[in-house]
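Example 3.2
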Amino acid sequence: DRPGGGGGMDLYVSTQIDPANPFSFGQPTNLGSTINTVSDEITPTYDTEKGVLYFSSNGHPGFGGQDVFRAEGSFGSYQAPKNLGQPVNSAADDYGLSIVPGTGTGYITSNRTFGNDKIKTTETDIFALNFRAGRAKLKATVYDNTTGSELGGAEVALVAISPEGRATEIGRRSFPTGVYTFDLTPGNKYRVSIRREGYQGAEYQVETNTSGSALYGQPVFLRRQSANNNQNQGARPPVQGAGQGPGFSSVPTPESTPPPSTAPNPPTAPAAAPAEAFRIQISATSRFVPTDGRYEAVRSIGDLRSEAIPGRTDLVRVTVGYFTDPAEAKTTLRQVQTSGFDTAFIVRYDKGVRYGKVRL
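Structure, written as tokens:
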């Protein structure tokens, strides 16, 4: 509430000039009228991965008292704050939001009532939040059936199936890498169709749970077309590696990985590979088992595989993901490091050939 502010408590930003000197912060600068009001703005936290500022305010329109807001952007270019709504906010004071990176879990301080356990707003409590509750996502990987390598350039169509059996296409996208993703709605049925030039098509179905958040998807291994089967492009062969065969899957499936193997397989770039691509190396191990529980925290990031180390027969490298955007690789690295692999690093590939460790 220093002089020169907009009134009440305002939010300011200050930059550490010398990273090695904790006392070298510059003069605080007011975040301006987009964020600050004549009332109180407090408890800021900034999500560096998503570029979102979270804070609490009793000056922006809310449900009463302090409410939690989010504003996308960075200093000097913040968008208008948006109220996070209920149940994050209440008619009481809600503030001090803290988010655990990469988990969707958060914590807030609130003096709200809580059933018969707390009927007054004279004390504050800490509440846990799940920002992914009620969300469902389709994420899996397309592979070449012959080589087992990740196959980019596939067109994936998502079709919703009504309780009466009516099919409605709700999305169709082409993916430069083998990993494909779509947002789903809980309590629905879908058909996933995968097509790629030069390969036989494939499809499978999923059924999302009615509540909670989950990741769905099946690895798809496409067979190359031959001159003899070009007339069968419309055929719908069963998806290899689906586990349960055709039909609806009533439970979430793990993140797509090739069938377990102890033999290393070098990463192969998708068709028409870009000159530069990146993967994240998470460890080196004597025996790589993709289904090992130690990889559960990073399985949803993308393709999990091993590659040989030249001159070594006792160790293989384990890598995850495939990125053509350096910024995306850098952001995902932080997620991997906070998921139990704190020594993970980014590896660059030039036209599918490993170049080595890089710092982005």
